[in-house]
Amino acid sequence: MAEKKSFEKTMEELEEIVKALEAGQIELDQALLLFEKGIKLSKACQKLLDQAEQKVVRLTKTEEGNLEEESFA
C-alpha cells in the first residue's frame, strides 16, 4: 500500500513539476507525463484541504457562558 503524503510534501512535489514544465527543457512526452502527475497531485492537495476544512470548528460562547461548537462553513 502506498504511503500517504502530507499536504506539504505533495505541494513540494507539485512545485517541482511546475518548475520543470516552466523551464521548458524537457521533451514533449516527458512534459505530458509530468503534467498528468501534476494534475493528480493538485487533486490530492485539494482533497487534503477539504478534509482539513471539515475538521475545523468554531467555538462560540452561549448566553449562559458555555462554549458551543459549530461548523466552520
How is the topology of this model organized?
Blueprint: H1 7-23, H2 28-55, E1 57-61, E2 67-71
Antiparallel strand pairs: 1-2
Brief rundown of the structure:
By secondary structure, this protein is α+β, with helices and mostly antiparallel strands. The chain is built from 2 helices and 2 strands; from the N terminus they run ααββ. It has one domain.
For the biggest β-sheet, the strand order reads: 1-2
**Strand residue content:** 5-15%
What is the H/E order?
Answer: HHEE
Radius of gyration: 19 Å
Please give the number of β-strands: 2
Tally of contiguous helical segments: 2
CA-to-CA gap between the ends?
Answer: 33 Å
- Percent range of helical residues: 55-70%
**What does the largest sheet look like?**
2 strands, antiparallel
CA-based shape: rod-shaped
The low-pLDDT segments are none
Content-based structural category: alpha+beta
Q: Average the pLDDT over all residues and give the rounded result.
A: 87
What is the number of domains? Answer: 1
Explain the overall architecture.
The chain is of the alpha+beta class and 73 residues long. It has one domain. It contains 2 helices and 2 strands; from the N terminus they run ααββ. The protein has a two-stranded antiparallel ribbon. Strand 1 and strand 2 (67-71) form a beta hairpin. It is rod-shaped. It starts with 6 loop residues before the first helix and ends with a strand.
